[in-house]
């Protein structure tokens, strides 16, 4: 027992010294340093003078023998660690959200609103949002293939550049799109949220999201928005499973499309055939109600959130092509599957 007490006391001292070092480097706050001091002091005193805690043990009827007091100490330590972890998680969540809001606000502010005021047509509008990272090779063809007008609605393309280093924004502007660039790379979900905010401020009636890599056919936008124009839906999901797709890529990815769609169908009670599709259309009034927070692995979030807001959702058949050029930005299949599953769970649970 003496050896255990000695190890515990030494570990507590080392922990507090590490906390002092972190505080001097401004990696932790003074409150965290005080918390570390209290915890380390309690462990050192317990290790050196265990009899001082007899009144506490007696209060809860933890008598000496059979390691009952040791079990009580371990239980108390677990409770304290849980409370500290809960505090740390709350602090981490607040910091993450603050960073998200800052990046979103900076990107929206840097959008060229004067140019938009000059060039965006007056009247009903369909605004398309294409998140892009290093897609200079593909984005121009995507923008040029977009129809200029659909059923009396002007089509306004916007590309949100996730801090590319290959001239993606320049290629998009040359092709006729408006652009905005994130100050740091954050992921397609962040880019999409920024695009949605800009689209709503531009007075969009319908907002369409599609990839900038050429996998989605801009010519099929009329098919995608038709249920909204006919007042049959508030959110439309373009499904390759109902339409067609070019074979290619990992077989695990194709299996994952079915698996994730089945998972969302079970969780939400509405049949979804292609939850990982990024080709979607949403009514502006519906978009304003959605709470979107995912920066990565985001493609399931908007549909699940729309279902949570009781929006009318339908799927339409669309065509998915293989990437026209460049490299896929998605991680390896198993990692992608794990993170995509987590994103589905987090969205459904909130």
CATH level-1 class of the largest domain? Alpha Beta
* N/C terminus separation: 47 Å
Shape: elongated
Oligomerization category of the chains in this entry: single chain
- H/E series, N to C? HHHHHEHEEHEHEHEHEHHEH
Give start-end ranges of low-pLDDT stretches.
Answer: none
Task: Work out the radius of gyration.
Answer: 27 Å
Named CATH architecture of the largest domain: Alpha-Beta Complex
CATH topology of the largest domain: Spore Coat Polysaccharide Biosynthesis Protein SpsA, Chain A
Largest β sheet strand count, sense and barrel closure: 8 strands, mixed
Strand-residue proportion: 5-15%
Describe what this molecule looks like in 3D.
The protein has 350 residues and is an alpha/beta fold. The chain has 2 domains: 2-105; 111-349, Spore Coat Polysaccharide Biosynthesis Protein SpsA, Chain A (Alpha-Beta Complex), CATH 3.90.550.10. Helices cover 52% and strands 14% of the residues. The protein contains 13 helices and 8 strands. It has helices at 2-24, 30-48, 54-59, 68-110, 113-119, 139-144, 168-175, 188-201, 221-229, 251-268, 284-287, 301-308, 333-349; strands spanning 125-132, 149-150, 153-161, 178-181, 206-209, 235-245, 280-283, 313-320. Strands 1, 2, 3, 4, 5, 6, 7 and 8 form an 8-stranded mixed β-sheet that branches. Helix 12 packs parallel to helix 13 (333-349).
